[in-house]
């Protein structure tokens, strides 16, 4: 176990009653000296909000970028992924709860400086670093310092987040990122309130901000939970909102839930539900819609929205046929495919390779 060293933070203010409010996310935790926020990794110490997980990770792994999931951002390339502990949401269906719900700092086995992470990514040929596993919003200072070190080496940065972040912190956080996969967990306030103790509106604001005011490449993921967020009506509303507010080029991933954490009594998502969601998205004008967490090569692959030509064939995380030209256009009809592409795909394949930072 590595000792907690409080790291000073920027997004907070003092309240008249003497407490200090963290302004990183809409929870707006108002804390007395010595208290921790809901995420448990930020707290009030010395009259300020500090971060307790700076420089400490729950582990590193080199993954295919498709695993984040990002299907339109440097396909086939390896991404160095890491997370810390804690989360600012309390999702009952969390699929990563051992890290995100941890209040035990002893899961933070690896100590790694921002520079050390960037150098490890470079050494291992990673094209990007992903801030993932738990929500990077809560370790914003560590993520942004690491992202800066990465950019200096030409390595890009990827956020995997629920987008539950306040405006000031949002600007700083996403200014460091090149791509984001944001969880759109459902499309009703009731879902967010009952299952995540949160609110949908700030997430939608984050998505609109990302599209309107940044150049961050954006993809969305929705974990479909049987009986909770998978009705035709909710999916239709969600997809219509995405096309109207974010445009047709934002890829949507519909992924399968597996019983976990506090939702062990709900069955896994049937593959037919994922295919139905994908069909609804396509019918509503979403150009790129995917199924995830199931074996479905058709639902995993990318097709030209203009002529239907197969652009990127996928089987789990393995790439097959490549139908884009060197400029990222359909080789059959010349229509550009939205995303960040290079003349050739990467060749990392489906491997995930855990990395011990000490030996990195
Ligand atoms: S980041 Fe953590 S401490 Fe800050 S408001 Fe959100 S939950 Fe509270």
Automatic annotation (TrEMBL):
Domain Radical SAM core: start-end pairs: 72-287
Domain of life: Bacteria
Binding site for [4Fe-4S] cluster: 87, 91, 94
Keyword Isomerase: no
Cofactor binding, note field: Binds 1 [4Fe-4S] cluster. The cluster is coordinated with 3 cysteines and an exchangeable S-adenosyl-L-methionine.
A Pfam family of this chain: Radical_SAM
Protein name: AmmeMemoRadiSam system radical SAM enzyme
Organism: Thiohalocapsa marina
């Amino acid at each position: 176990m590595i000792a907690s060293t409080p790291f000073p933070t920027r997004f907070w203010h003092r309240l008249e009653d003497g407490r200090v409010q963290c302004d990183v996310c809409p929870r707006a935790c108002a804390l007395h000296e010595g208290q921790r926020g809901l995420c448990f990794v930020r707290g009030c110490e010395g009259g300020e909000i500090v971060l307790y997980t700076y420089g400490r990770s729950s582990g590193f792994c080199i993954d295919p970028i498709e695993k984040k999931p990002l299907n339109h951002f440097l396909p086939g390339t390896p991404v160095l992924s890491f997370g810390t502990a804690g989360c600012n949401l309390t999702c009952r269906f969390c699929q990563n709860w051992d890290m995100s719900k941890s209040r035990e700092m002893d899961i933070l086995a690896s100590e790694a400086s921002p520079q050390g992470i960037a150098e490890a990514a470079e050494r291992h040929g990673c094209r990007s670093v992903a801030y993932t596993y738990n929500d990077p919003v809560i370790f914003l200072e560590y993520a942004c310092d690491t992202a800066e070190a990465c950019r200096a080496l030409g390595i890009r940065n990827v956020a995997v987040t629920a987008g539950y972040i306040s405006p000031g912190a949002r600007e700083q956080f996403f200014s460091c990122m090149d791509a984001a996969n944001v969880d759109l967990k459902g499309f009703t306030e009731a879902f967010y309130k009952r299952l995540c103790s949160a609110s949908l509106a700030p997430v939608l604001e984050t998505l609109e901000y990302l599209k309107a005011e940044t150049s961050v490449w954006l993809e969305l993921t929705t974990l479909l939970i049987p009986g909770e967020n998978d009705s035709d009506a909710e999916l239709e509303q969600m997809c219509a909102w995405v096309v109207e507010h974010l445009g047709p080029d934002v890829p949507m991933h519909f992924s399968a839930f597996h019983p976990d954490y506090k939702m062990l009594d709900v069955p896994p998502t049937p593959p037919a539900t994922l295919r139905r969601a994908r069909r609804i998205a396509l019918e509503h004008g979403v150009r790129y819609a995917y199924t995830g967490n199931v074996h479905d090569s058709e639902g995993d692959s990318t097709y030209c929205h203009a002529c239907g030509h197969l652009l990127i064939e996928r089987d789990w995380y393995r790439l097959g046929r490549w139908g884009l030209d060197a400029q990222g256009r359909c080789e059959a009809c010349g229509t550009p495919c939205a995303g960040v592409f290079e003349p050739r795909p990467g060749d990392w394949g489906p491997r995930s390779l855990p990395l011990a930072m000490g030996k990195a």
